[in-house]
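User: Fold this, then the next.

Assistant: Folding the first:
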Amino acid sequence: MTVTEAPRAASPAVVEPTPQAPTTGVAAVVGSGNPRMVGQLFVGTSLVFLLVVGVVGVLVGFERVDTASNDLFGDDVLRAYALHTVTGLFLVVLPLLLGLATAIVPLQVGASTIAFPRASAAAYWTYVASGALVVASFAVDGGPFGTDVAGVELFLVAMVALLASLVVAAISVGATVLALRAPGLTLRRAPLFSWSMLVAAVIWSLTLPVLAALMLLSWVDLRHGARFLGGEGGIYDRIAWVFWQPTLYAFAIPALGIVGDIVPTFARRRHVRHGAALFLIGLFGALSFGPWAQLGFSLDGSATSADFLFSGPWVVVSFAAVVPVLGLLGLWTTTSRRGSPRVGAPLLVGFLGALLVLAGVAAGAATSLDALDLDGTTWMTGQANLVLIGALTAGLAGVTFWAPKVFGKLLPDPLAGLGGMALFLGALVYALPDLASGALGQQRLVQGGGIPDADVDTAEVLNLVSAIGAIVVVLGVVAFVLALARPRGRAEVADDPWDGHTLEWATSSPPPVGNFATLPEISSEAPVYDARHATTATEAAP
């Protein structure tokens, strides 16, 4: 029997795939999971909301000039106040910091992308949609103090979605620091901004869901008619604890990391006691965890810290929070003094932002003293403005510092520096009169009240000065927007224009897909600084 073998079929020809051009235009923006693109969208959108919030803040400030009437907003004055405060934090400060972190943290830890890039992109689009609904709810007589029940319900649902988006974005950043660090980059060697974002992501992920649960509980209370939480008028009391210590401080955690990375770069030397700086940022974050203290405050002062069961710990935390901020300022001053510092807009604006945060934390320590009777007064408004505008100022310093990596361009130093000075001076003029009128007894509610008849004229003058300060803050924001719109020069930006210390300066500006072709050896907290000085030493050896 003869066995024959069938001929083998010819191998099919290998067809090379036709290269496709990268997606451009709207499709590239909408469908992108690139952390740099997502970061740009977060930062740009937050600045748009910031201009709107600033205008509302100016109008609310002038509404307070006459404590006996509400000529601008009439019966809607409380809703305008709530719009200014809620959107200022959740549509401006947090998204700006998260956008900067989304673009920069993967570069700082040597990762090719952010953890959960699609979730991060989805978080941005949810932020845009829910933020627009939050603003729309106020426009239809909803939101806190609104009279349209459907509008109030819309606000509550939109706030839950907004908070969820911010938590998802924070988790993506925190997971990047934990899981995607380059070999050799231990947490003890982590850049201070990345470390501060990890601390912030943990605290925000524990705090914002509590607020979301309260919004959901308020929705159930409103929807089913029990009104045991005060109905439409009680919603702001469920939110107000976020604007009060210690929770307020949680939103300034990244500001400390931003300044901590800028200072050694401009001092041209290593950060003094990097490990101590990590500890102090972590301590500040731990002290800023505040859901436990939320029952100690309501807007009208009916339940204050003095009446709260945990008033003792609350006072201790309020004073202890000053220590890490002072410690970090001391380290930054020492680092600058021991180095060869150069002046630049990022350093100037960052330091001014840190000083505002310190002033706000110090004001919070004074508020915790029951003998001063500052609860429920405009002292609290002034303190919140100092901390939040300080965090915003430091965030804009970070945008200026990392603009080559985020936007592929350098911002004009004079314009950015002018914007930072305007923010700093405007914040002082905006907040200090509120501290003074609060010491006179003016209530935090926009209508005023609580002021002795002999001090009414003084309080109204202070309110006018505060409104002028709000205008200066808005002008500072406009200066930063113009700086972003008008980059420095026309030439390509250098990969490392600042002589940076950390890994984001080891790649091109802007970074390519995948971020890095090679990474320097990581044996310290400043690998690029090490590589630069090793090269200098080698060249000088002959």
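Now the next one, as you asked:
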Amino acid sequence: MSQVDLCSGQDLVGMFGAAVACLEKSAAELNSLNVFPVPDGDTGTNMLLTMRSAVTEASRCANGSASAVAAAIAHGALMGARGNSGVILSQILHGLASKLDGKDCLEGSDLVAGLMEGSRLAYRAVSNPVEGTILTVIRESSEAARVVSVGKDLRDILEATVSAAKDSVGRTPTLLAVLRDAGVVDAGGLGLYVILDGFLRYLRGEMGEEYVVRQQVEVEVPRVAAGELYGYCTEFMIEGQSLNLDDIRGRIEDMGESVVVVGDEKVVRVHVHCLDPGPAISYGASLGKLRQVKVEDMDEQHEEYVALKRAPTVDIATVAVASGKGLSDVFESLGVTAVVPGGQTMNPSIEELLGVVGRVRADKVIILPNNSNIVLGAGQVRKLSSKQVEIVPTETIPQGVAALLAFNHEADLETNVKAMEAARLGVKTLEVTIAVRSARIGDFIMDAGQAIGFVDGDLAAVGDSVPQLVKEMLEQMDLAESEIVTIYYGAGTESAEAQGIADMLRQKHHHLEVEVISSGEPHYHYIVSVE
């Protein structure tokens, strides 16, 4: 096999297209590697969508130099970054781009320098870096590239990088107890290995340009002309047997735009923008059982966007992230300026957050992420926006509600941020959902299908009945010192069941003010706020 000493801008696009292809095949596996066995496995999806955004931007780059393409890739990744894994990945790619400034081609030494810089930026992006994660994998693989680089060509260096990344992923459970207890490797680290392996496969000639051309067409962002309809954002999951991703993707592409099809032979997730969602949903139903069907009217969303632009100017705007109509209604009733759809399993991208921040009619903005996996991305918006943006790092919906209640229109930005930060820390959050697989987490052993409960993000209880577990967890809390309990019940939970829990609380704790609200949240059966 001949040496590969240089990589052109076109080759960079090819390498990233190959990496996206590899991620498409691995996304379901990455999503299944949850540290906690709850249905929030979105690392594979987040990394795939981040890389797709990077390739989209690169495909639009008129300048074919490695420098220009790498810069476009870094920008696209940052704008499309979703979740912590996507943000960290965007920083790695930014590091690579920074070492290609002004260069027509990528050399082995540039790759080494870029990976080392990417590692540095990735660690810097995280306030409390934890070993045994994607951070460890980029650090150890970039160091392996540096050690082997003398006298080696680009492909040899990348081979050493990929080999080191694979070994590093295998060691992640030895560095992080929660991974060891759950019997998994780090999902983000494995995703990075998949990406690097895709680069190598392209340089070896195992994934050629014919894929890259098809990929560029797939990820091209549609432009809606004036007067055209936006249609419906349609998403669903197919559970079946011998599902063929390529066939499904081909059929869905004939039905609409902005197509994302990921999964494996048994489970496939579909996303498509189309004027009529019926054919796509019917086609999916013909292949297997449909789950998590969601259809959103983008024309209605566009009207809301126009209305937002016409909204009166405020001194300080508040932006909250929430999933489910019920939760959105709660925040709107409390006077939030804008709600960004998202949360567990589908974190809004930095570009989406940045877009909303840019559209609100205020020069000062406070963001409430309401999810621990969105806090890091929100921090990037603060750096990118031309407005004065502050983050109150709410990690749960109840924290976000408490923070918004503390907002004072008459106070200045600094005073509001301090008050909202104090308020979010004054609320306890209880969350109950269903384990999606059997696992051991610390002292807890659970089977797939059992109810599992969290208090402020920490696994706290396991049981066989969701409502019974909620009652038991509430009884274990110091309700004598509490005043208000708000029970948000999810999309799959009956109102009567939630009211039964509320009645139990009222009978046993007469001093409590208990409220029951339908959240529409698709992943948690219950989210309970205790103040």
